[in-house]
Design a protein that fits this description.
8 helices, alpha/beta, Rossmann fold, 7-stranded mixed beta sheet
Length: about 220
């Protein structure tokens, strides 16, 4: 993942230049990338390193203390978000795959952020529904990178869980460019298009779609 661009609009040379000038993973992050790569083709699910660096910076500059993640995979995105939180910060991670998430645990420990991460193995919609909605329990930041057919369902739940002024980040919104291919009618493509249309016209959000990696949408809750 660190050596080949996930962004469909970047050459390998430009990607290397980009990483060398501000986003290259440190040894712990790189070791997690390598451990994920060892899983084979499924490793494409891991976010790109430049996206991870951007998410760490976002968490820091927004002063986020409580964060949510929907879709953890092997824990690279969780590592990046947790590193952007203060020492007393909390990141609740939602995933259904014990085997994949276990890959990340040793790296969270090495990075000194394991005590900030609360991993919950269950369907994310169930976990989100179980979280309190009172003002003191609201989250500052959320990241969605899970099953595409539920993107809108996740966002609707997050509208109740993220404070006004908080950020919701949504991954894969360009889907390797397939969102603009009228001949692509695969379920995931259709679901992402539908989510993009819904989010960009929702009165509760102000947002921007960025061509980072496979496309990242930032939604600020009004």
């Amino acid at each position: 993942m660190a050596d080949a661009p996930k962004a469909f609009n970047l050459s390998p040379e430009i990607h290397r230049y980009l990483l060398d000038h501000g986003a290259r993973p440190d040894p712990i992050a790189q070791d997690l990338i390598d451990a994920t790569r060892a899983l084979g083709d499924i490793s494409i699910m891991q976010i790109a390193p430049e996206q991870g660096a951007f998410m760490t910076l976002l968490a820091r500059i927004t002063g986020a203390r409580r964060a949510l993640e929907v879709g953890t995979f092997t824990g690279y995105s969780a590592l990046c978000i947790a590193r952007g939180l203060p020492d007393d910060g909390e990141l609740i991670c939602c995933d259904t795959h014990e085997e994949w998430t276990q890959v990340g645990r040793p790296f969270w420990e090495r990075a000194g952020v394991a005590d900030r991460i609360d991993l919950r193995i269950a369907p994310a919609l169930e976990t989100l529904a179980s979280l309190p909605r009172d003002e003191a329990a609201l989250f500052d930041l959320a990241f969605v990178d899970a099953d595409k057919g539920n993107y809108q369902n996740y966002a609707e739940q997050l509208l109740e869980l993220v404070r006004p002024g908080g950020l919701i980040l949504v991954d894969n919104v360009l889907w390797s460019g397939a969102v603009v291919d009228p001949e692509d009618t695969r379920d995931n493509t259709v679901a992402i298009r539908a989510f993009n249309d819904w989010a960009s016209n929702h009165e509760r959000f102000e947002g921007v779609m960025l061509p980072i990696a496979d496309g990242l949408t930032l939604l600020r809750v009004r």
